[in-house]
Amino acid sequence: MPFPLPPISSLDCVKVVGSFEELILERLSNGINAVCWPRILDGDFAEVINSIGDGDGVRVLEEEFLRSLDVSHSAKAAIDIMLNDRRCLVDLGLDPLLNCIYGYPEDEGSEVVATDVFSFHTDSAQVEAETWLCTYYGSSSEGLQNQEAIRRIDIPSIRAELLKAYGGQDNDEFCRYLTENCYDLHYAAHPNAVPYVFGVGNLWKIAVEYPGSPVRPCIHRAPRPALGDPSRLLLIC
Fold first, then answer.
1. Is residue 186 classed as helix, strand or coil in its secondary structure?
2. Residue 20 has pLDDT above 80, yes or no
3. In terms of Cα–Cα distance, which of 30, 29, 35 is closest to 14?
4. Which domains does the chain have, with CATH numbers?
5. Maximum Cα–Cα distance for the chain, whole Å?
6. Is the pLDDT of residue 2 over 80?
7. Are 43 and 66 a contacting pair, CB within 8 Å?
């Protein structure tokens, strides 16, 4: 029998806020590595997806294109919400993207550690940074509490396989190899771990791994689509 998904308000690592202003001001620190502004959004996002049409990969949705869609008043309201969210983040000096996601590239399974977005992972940067995201339509991302996961490179059998592929000693050069290939950013869930769902419409700010970060990075993954699932509307920054 599957575990019930925990509500985000019950998680020690997640802070729930009530406005965009609170979302901006809330610091990622003291064990809080994700901040969520829960929202129920008006507008017909399904019509927006249908109007965009078929495709593959990830399509960036520019404002001019979205405004050109011949859609109903309700779908225009959905477009206004997405563009307003984007504008709010631009006003913070960020560079957000609105995407229609038909699918992501996936590792073929030959690698010891899969490094695609369907694997639990953390984002990383060389300077102070945060990741912002919102799913407007389709399946949403999932998160995992840090104590419920282990880095894949810290699992002895996986580290041994990576060392064999590297063909050298387990030293500083090997550690650089792990970092250069992003192996150090991917995690395995503990057997009884229960992911939490980011949800549709909610705007999130999550912690990134960078030098001097006061909090552990947020472990998350993109939803793996099932056959027949709709495309996904996503804001990402």
1. strand
2. yes
3. 35
4. 8-148+191-236 (2.60.120)
5. 62
6. no
7. no
